[in-house]
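Re: export button greyed out
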Amino acid sequence: MDITVRQIEWYDLNNQDFWDCLRALTVAPTLLMPDAAMIHLRRETYWTLVAELGERLVGTLTLIIEPKFTHGGSLVGHIEDVAVHPDFQKQGVGSKLLIRAIALAKEAKCYKLILDCAEEVAPFYEKHDFRRHNLGLRLDVK
Amino acid sequence: MDITVRQIEWYDLNNQDFWDCLRALTVAPTLLMPDAAMIHLRRETYWTLVAELGERLVGTLTLIIEPKFTHGGSLVGHIEDVAVHPDFQKQGVGSKLLIRAIALAKEAKCYKLILDCAEEVAPFYEKHDFRRHNLGLRLDVK
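Workaround output, generated via the alternate export path:
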């Protein structure tokens, strides 16, 4: 069976697989009608993709398309929350999602794609021609 | 004179100082009516701040507020394009902007703020309690 990638739909939020993908990444309680979904499903700034394998939802990725004041008003794509279902890891799901996100960024005419990741997953992105460029800094807001 | 920080207004786009700030950071040709402005001035996802010193616009910063499907639908703030006018650097403009952005992120109930930066400017953010967390990767989209 082939992995296919499409944009998220409302009904995906009722699919336990979707939340299990995100839980492979971080804390992700199921939300019945998350505020987040409202804006993600508007498909302007946020483009959330899901990967399917047969009946299963096996992965997800979010692309934020940010219009800049710099670079002549060009767009920058931010890759966020690349998550693969724990039962379907190491099968190319992440690559399929990333390749689609890169294609979407090209179509949208982004001049660059950026992301933050831990050292141990950097080789995955480097395989897809990303290069180490900057430091990723964080402040926990309390 | 005190540095004050406020949200961007339409007329700031006609202020050469604004573009000179951004040019201290990267390529930033003046745009008379940039598409970017349309969404930035809507003040939903994008919060662009400007710093003023008397009659001059001396700095700018953009905060992207991203709703997550993870973390119970919580928000993450992304700090982008922190830029200080070349004639007003090393006078605390960047700190004023960053402190306001952190306050906005708290008000919005973001659970974290993240940013990418070059090694040489990391100490500025570390002074404001940011910590090195991840790698920043980049793909130039052609």
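Residues 3-127 of chain A form a domain with the Aminopeptidase fold (CATH 3.40.630.30). The button fix ships in the next patch.
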